[in-house]
Amino acid sequence: GQNIDQPTEMTATEGAIVQINCTYQTSGFNGLFWYQQHAGEAPTFLSYNVLDGLEEKGRFSSFLSRSKGYSYLLLKELQMKDSASYLCAVRDDQAGTALIFGKGTTLSVSS
Amino acid sequence: DSGVTQTPKHLITATGQRVTLRCSPRSGDLSVYWYQQSLDQGLQFLIQYYNGEERAKGNILERFSAQQFPDLHSELNLSSLELGDSALYFCASSATSGGRFFGPGTRLTVL
Fold first, then answer.
1. Mean pLDDT computed over every residue of chain B
2. A92: closest CA among A29, A22, A18, A4?
3. Number of residue pairs across A and B with CB atoms under 8 Å?
């Protein structure tokens, strides 16, 4: 089976940096994904890590440690529009090639 | 716009009824994944099809079924509907690897 944990809620202020952690346990790991989802809308793809290390894409970076079953999403220069839910998902090849999602972290950015 | 389309956008029906949700993947994508998202459960993987064949099953109820047609569009059939089936239903598609791209979703309300 799979188990994916992330904090339920986080708050931050505009211009700050926030790190959202994700830990996972899965038997057929083949990649970790981060998605952003605004309420009532579709998840949008942010990043993908399959090897250990840091992937940077503009204001967003994602890190993976496969040995520790750990990832984080780093958001820099926070903007109000970054208020959303951030979903950590693992590709488990024992579940086809589907992504298995954590319950998400709701980030609230205030001015 | 992810390139994945879903119809209808909203669906309101009564308990005991049967509905069909439709999804067209991005051009060239062979895989279609169906997910259910309710307030307390997060994104739950239901089922995956690849090039017309069922590839993997997640937490899909026996009252639910899906298929993928030769033109690669997919339909999710929900029958004997219950109040608890009210949720957002997303489909996603992918190429051979990498991110999964989500459609806008169908909001199902069962009264």
1. 94
2. A29
3. 60
